[in-house]
Amino acid sequence: MNDPYDLPKGYFILLLSLFIFTMWGVNLFSLSEIEITETTSSGPPAGTGSQGGGGGSTTILFKPRPFLCFYLEELGYQVTFDATLPERPGELVFLVAPSDRLSPVRARQLIAWVQRGGNLVMILPDSHAISAHLGATVNERQALDGDRLVMRLPYLEDVNVLTGAGAYVEVRPDMPFLRPFRNVERRPAVLVTFRGNGQIVLLTNADFLTPDGLARADNLVYVTRLVERLAGSHRVHFYDPEPNVRYRARIRSPGQQPAPVSTRKKKIPYLSLWSLIKANPISWALPQLALALVLFFYSRGRRFGRPLPLPAEPDPMPTFVEGLGRLLDENADQAFQVRRIVDDFLIAVGRRFALAPTRDQIPALIGRVKALRPDLGTRLEAALRDLGHAMDGTVLPEARLVVHINTLDTVRKELKING
Questions:
Q1: Where are the chain's structural domains?
Q2: In Å, how far are 97, 149, 241, 244, 256 from 102, measured between CA atoms?
Q3: pTM summary value
Q4: What pLDDT digit, counting tens, does each position of 374-403 carry?
Q5: Contact present, 366 and 415 (Cβ < 8 Å)
Q6: Fold of the 67-239 domain
C-alpha cells in the first residue's frame, strides 16, 4: 500500500487498457476492404465482327427480399429490412425462412422482445430450432388439404380457407397454442401463441412467400388482415439475422454467342472486423493481442507472490452521541427524551411568537396557535398535555408517543410554511 510505484503502475495499466479498447473500437466500426471476383466482357462475341451485337456477363452481390416486402410497400406500410428490433412495444416483425445458422442468442432476443410487447410473425416452411424453442416442431406431410377457418375472429371475417401446406406443426401437449384453422388431418399449419405482453403467429405454408402462392384461396386476404391487426403503427419490420451475408449472381447481356470474358479481382468497402484482421493482421490485431496479454500478466503477476498479512485495525471508538443514545435506550429513560424533544420544539416555535423557550410559556403558545389555526391548536394542546405527564415520569405507550411527536413536527412545519 505504501509502495511509491503503485500509483504510476496503476496509471500505466489504465492508459494501456484505454489505448487497446480504443483501437479495437476503431477497428470494429471502420470500413475495411474485401476482394471479390468480377467477370466482364473483353470484346465482341466470337464469330461476329466489330459491329455485331456482343454479349457479356458480370457478377454482382445482392440481398434478396421476400415478396411480402414489396406487397406491403404498395399498401402504404413503412417497411424496413435490417438486423435491429424496434424499441417501441406493439410493433410488427416478420421472420421469413431463417437460416439454420440463426444463433440461439438471437432467438432468445426475439422471444424476449415479444415478451416486452412485440408482435412476431414467423414463416417457417421447414423445421427450425426456433420453433422447437417455442414448443412446436415443423414436419412434412404428403396430403395438401386446405385449412378452413374455425375461429371467427373479427379481423378474419373475409377469410374462409387457406391453401394446403406441405408442412404442419406438431405441438407439445403442455404448450398453449391457438389453432384458428383446421384441416381434415388435424395437423395445423397456422398457430398463434402469446408470450408475455406480445403475440407470435407461426405459419408453415410456403405459399405466403411467392406471388402465385398468395393469389391462391384466401392467402392474400389473410396476410393483409393479419398485418392490419398487428401493425398498429403502420410500420412493418423484416428481421434479417445475417445482415452481412450477400448472394452472388451473374448477369449476362444478350448476344448471339457467348463473348470472351475476363476475370479480375476488385476490392470493395466492407464493415467487418474479421476482414480487417485478414487484410492487415501485423499492424493491428497481433500487436494489440500481444500487448493485451503482457498487460494482463503484468497486472496479475503480484498475485503469485507471497501473501502479505493485513495489519490489524482497532475497533472504532463510539462517538459521544452514540454512547449517550445507547445508554438512554438501555435505561429506557423516556422522560429525558421527551424533555429534549419538547425543549427543541419550544425553541423553534417560541421564536415565531417572540416567546421565551420555557415550559411556563406553553399556555401562551397554545393560545397563539389556536388564534391562527384552531385545528392545530387543539391537537397541540392534547399532545403537550400528554407529553407533560411523560416528563413527570408517566410512561406512555410507544405508539401514542410517536403520534404526539408527529403532531409537534406537523405544527412546526405548518407554522413555518403557512404561519
A1: 67-239, 320-418
A2: 11, 32, 7, 13, 44
A3: 0.47
A4: 888 888 888 888 888 888 878 778 788 888
A5: no
A6: Rossmann fold (3.40.50)
